[in-house]
Amino acid sequence: MSENSIDIALVQETYLKPNRPKACSIAGYVQLRTDRTYSSKGGTALYYRRSLHCGPINIPPLTNMEATGCRLAMTGHSTLVIVSVYLPSPKRLLRRDLRALFALGDAVILFGDFNCKNKMGLPI
What is the rounded CA–CA span in Å between residue 51 and residue 65? Predict the structure, then answer.
């Protein structure tokens, strides 16, 4: 990743499990991850370059989404919250999950796999 000047990478459907905490680590990067423990597949991860002023954040309980996030401090700018999200299919995208994630800060960016095929709008 460093050869391509990637500072932050967000990954969904990692399939990683807690019994292998060093799996998929990348030299020069901090790995944050949320492993799915209740069934196979799923999971999210976030990698950031060690030189960044970045740190993990606690993700609030979510109903249908899986997420991993960090807080990125930048000189001359407000702090950004960056979140890797995964919404497993066929689960619905819920407003309460989005509200919980957007409440993490003033500037929140969600990246990921939303599997959104909902044409009827968001349920409460």
Answer: 29
C-beta separation of 58 from 84 below 8 A:
no
The model's pLDDT over 47-63, given as tens digits with 9 standing for 90+, comes to: 999 999 999 999 999 99
Q: In what order do the strands lie in the sheet with 54-56?
A: 54-56, 66-72, 80-86, 108-113
**Count of beta carbons in the 10 Å neighbourhood of residue 64:** 13
Domains plus CATH for the chain?
8-113 (3.60.10.10)
Q: What are φ and ψ of residue 4, in 5° steps?
A: -100, 10
| pTM to 2 decimal places | 0.89
Report the alpha-carbon angle 18-23-26, nearest 5.
135
